[in-house]
TrEMBL record:
Top EC class, one word: hydrolase
Transmembrane segments: 7-27
GO biological process, one term: proteolysis
Keywords: Carboxypeptidase, Hydrolase, Membrane, Protease, Transmembrane, Transmembrane helix
InterPro entries: DD-CPase-like, VanY-like_core_dom, VanY/YodJ_core_dom, Zn_M74/Hedgehog-like
EC numbers, comma separated: 3.4.16.4
Entry keyword annotation includes Plastid: no
Molecular function (Gene Ontology), one example: serine-type D-Ala-D-Ala carboxypeptidase activity
D-alanyl-D-alanine carboxypeptidase-like core domain boundaries: 100-219
Phylogenetic classification of the source organism: Bacteria, Bacillati, Bacillota, Clostridia, Eubacteriales
Positions in coiled-coil regions: none
Pfam families per record: VanY (PF02557)
Name of the protein in its database record: D-alanyl-D-alanine carboxypeptidase
Length: 238
């Protein structure tokens, strides 16, 4: 009876132990499985996003034009509002620029001021979504042909990079020959910016002369582009 009871206990303990080990090991495997599935998902999402959205990104030298677009989800790193004056009616989103151009832009605006030229920010970063809205509104009001002539398709506006900004003056009218346009053309390279769509270069840039649209490319590239009177497309050999 005593032995029988002891054997009975041994059998019970063995069964419970085996059950416990199977459960524990199984749970362990499950947890491990979940963890690896989780990190795989995270990595693949991340990889997907960098493949699809960041493929053209080479920091300040990224080329965005009608042939080189950005992904739908591309958003510049550390978007920030620079400490400059903005024209009336500028949206909160458009006050933002990529963090990398914040200081150079502030320095540019300060230097212009010292020369008696007052510049205002007019439109910096524009998200894919807002470009999509602008484009589709223009298509509705003027038709696709006119919309295509004046508005970049979503993903193909340089403003999505956060590396450029449209500058304006007190009259909200920077055109060829104004002192603000002249100052920008002569000086913006010193701060790492270029006039992205220069006069007479539409056949290369695809865009009419825009004396107000300045684009950050870094000081070395900006000086080279300025001194040689070329475009970003030519500088990059594209
Ligand atoms: Zn612009």
């Amino acid at each position: 009876m005593k032995n029988g009871f002891r054997n009975f206990l041994i059998v019970i303990i063995t069964i419970c132990g085996t059950w416990y080990i199977i459960q524990y090991a199984g749970l362990g495997l499950n947890l491990k499985g979940i963890r690896s599935a989780g990190s795989k998902l995270y990595l693949s999402e991340k990889d997907k996003s960098s493949d699809a959205d960041n493929i053209n990104i080479d920091k300040e030298l990224v080329l965005v034009n009608s042939e080189h677009g950005l992904g739908k989800y591309y958003k510049p790193e550390s978007l920030t509002i620079p400490d400059i004056s903005f024209a009336n009616g500028v949206s909160q989103e458009e006050k933002h620029v990529a963090g990398i151009i914040e200081r150079p832009l502030e320095e540019l605006v300060d230097a212009a001021k010292r020369d008696g030229v007052i510049l205002f920010g007019n439109s910096g970063y524009r998200s894919y979504k807002s470009q999509e809205n602008t484009y589709s509104n223009r298509v509705k009001s003027q038709g696709e042909k006119l919309a295509d002539a004046y508005v970049a398709k979503p993903g193909f506006s340089e403003h999505q990079t956060g590396l450029c900004i449209d500058i304006t003056n007190q009259d909200k009218n920077i055109i060829k020959g104004t002192k603000e346009a002249n100052w920008l053309a002569e000086n913006c390279y010193k701060f790492g910016f270029i006039i992205r769509y220069p006069y007479g270069k539409k056949s290369i840039t695809g865009i009419e002369y825009e004396p107000w649209h300045i684009r950050y490319v870094g000081k070395n590239a900006a000086k080279y582009i300025h001194d040689n009177e070329i475009t970003l497309e030519e500088y990059l050999g594209k």
